[in-house]
């Protein structure tokens, strides 16, 4: 039996920590723009603006919001998917196995949805169609 480098609980909790800023800002924006609840948005946006770095080096919350869900997705996919290759003289065989780990699959689905939401937002915001 092959063992994973990353334990499933560690990957799940690391994914939760990495995805939290992006998930938080998306929920706050949904509350403002669809539900009309502006209080949380007005309180938290100055904090996010103060955390974003104007220089190229240093901590930048914007990079964590964009790259965080992608990192959490990759981290949790390495736990739930196994890739095995079998090579012979005549052919190379690839086998992908998915493990039944509900919390990591939930994190993969949540990260995928969050990445889709961020992509749709970026296309809608930046597209001059």
List the SSEs and their pairings:
Blueprint: H1 8-33, H2 39-51, H3 61-80, E1 81-87, E2 92-98, H4 102-126
Antiparallel strand pairs: 1-2
List keywords for this structure.
single chain, 129 residues, mainly alpha, two-stranded antiparallel sheet, 4 helices, 2 strands, elongated
Please tell me about this protein's structure:
The chain is 65% helix and 11% strand. With 129 residues, the protein is mainly alpha-helical. The chain has one domain (8-126). A hairpin with a 4-residue loop joins strand 1 and strand 2. Helix 3 packs antiparallel against helix 4. The protein is elongated and about 65 Å long. The model has no long low-confidence stretch (mean pLDDT 82).
> Could you give the count of β-strands?
2
What topology, given as strand order, has the largest sheet?
1-2
- How many helices? The count is 4
Mean pLDDT comes to 82
| Proportion of beta-strand residues | 5-15%
Instruction: Estimate the helix proportion, in percent.
Output: 55-70%
Quickly count the domains: 1
Q: H/E series, N to C? A: HHHEEH
State the shape: elongated
Short description:
With 129 residues, this protein is mostly helical. It contains four helices and two strands. The mean pLDDT is 82.
